[in-house]
Amino acid sequence: MPLKIGIVGLPNVGKSTLFKALTKNPVDIQNYPFCTIEPNVGIVKVPDIRLEKLAKMSNSAKIIPTVIEFVDIAGLVKGASTGEGLGNKFLANIREVDAIVQVVRDFENSDIIHVHNKINPEDDIEIINTELIIADLETVKKVQVRIEKDARGNKKGASEQLVILNKIRKTLENGFLANSLVETQNFASLPEEKLDLSDENTEIIIRELSLLTMKPFLYVYNACPVKSDKVGAELFNGVYYKISDKLKENKDFIVLDIKIEEELLEMTTEEAQELEIKSNLDQLILKAYEILGLITFLTTGEDETRAWTTRKNSSAPIAGTAIHNDFKEKFIRAEVIAWDELLAVGSWSKAREIGKLRTEGKEYVVQDGDVIEFKI
């Protein structure tokens, strides 16, 4: 089942246009708030140049990429955490995704309505994050009442869980996303130590809370390229943009001209090349894949060359469950070779013949780009 990325933002910031460009599916993008009510869903393949090269080597009948599911969620407004606008529907939809892509408007255009009648990307981010934090605080407070009761009754693990819960609550009350407690970024104004995700009580609390702000965030700044005065501009994916230092403080972000991405849908390759315009959507897809903490391993043969998704630091038996759940229990060993090393050798049989295939056991940690044959 594909992992889900929710595309969120204030009304009229380019969410649905981005979704259309990503998925190449026509959706309603008329210029008025709450145009998107029911979430649009689209499956997007993760770009991977390794697949075609391996398929050519193996003379594969088909190529199967790994995919991500993007969900275009209704625009959020101030007060959504208390049900304003389509707040309740927004929050319900966003709970179902694995990560959040927050589209932020950073361009001027008097023909496109801004819900607050001013362009201030920093304020827009604060509005959305505040609403998500408020919603999470309500969740934490409800669970805290029960955990405090369990602690008074000396229920096993309750006291430890209460310490974790209080740490999360304090983080939210200080205006930080809950994921700041698990990300590696150093928040100087947040003295709390990071949560230990390997701790059983921490895992229980995080799973039960299912917090919106514990999800990974990727900010997409929808901006216009700088074509003339490049003073103060910075190069992002081959294009110059002017982005404030405050916006660049966010841990994970990319900059796109979403309108250009939409226009590219109507152009031929030759037209785009003539105008010297190229899409940067692949960078968004790959970055979304990255923030989910995912890597790709590969299988190749005459039937198919295929990309498989697993979490970083997964052991071989765990990674094998991407192919079939039985692989975890029935795993015996795996034959492994890096994709580029396999290409250099020329074939799987040749790699075996000259001793390039490595035999790995249950403790082996799968690496991105490994080509694997599982033995069960």
Write a structural description.
The chain is an alpha/beta fold. 36% of the residues lie in helices and 20% in strands. The protein is built from 14 helices and 14 strands. The chain has a 6-stranded mixed beta sheet with strand order 2-4-1-5-6-9, with helices on both faces. Strands 3-11-10 form a 3-stranded mixed beta sheet. It has a 3-stranded antiparallel beta sheet with strand order 13-12-14. The chain is flat.
Gist of the model:
With 376 residues, the protein is of the alpha/beta class.
List the topology elements.
Blueprint: E1 3-8, H1 15-23, E2 40-45, H2 49-58, E3 62-64, E4 67-72, H3 87-95, E5 99-106, H4 121-152, H5 158-173, H6 200-209, E6 217-223, E7 234-236, E8 239-241, H7 245-248, E9 253-256, H8 258-264, H9 269-274, H10 281-291, E10 294-300, E11 304-311, H11 316-320, H12 326-330, E12 333-338, H13 339-345, H14 348-353, E13 358-360, E14 370-375
Parallel strand pairs: 1-4, 1-5, 3-11, 5-6, 6-9
Antiparallel strand pairs: 2-4, 7-8, 10-11, 12-13, 12-14
Helix pairs in contact: 1-8, 2-13, 4-5, 5-6
* Gap between N and C termini: 23 Å
> What proportion of the residues form beta strands (DSSP E)?
15-25%
Q: What's the rounded overall pLDDT mean?
A: 85
Helix content: 25-40%
Shape: flat
N-to-C SSE string, H for helix and E for strand: EHEHEEHEHHHEEEHEHHHEEHHEHHEE
This entry's quaternary arrangement is single chain
The DSSP helix count reads: 14
Going by helix content, strand content and strand pairing, the class is alpha/beta
- Major sheet: arrangement of strands: 2-4-1-5-6-9
**Secondary structure: number of strands:** 14
Q: Biggest sheet, open or closed, and with what strands and sense?
A: 6 strands, mixed
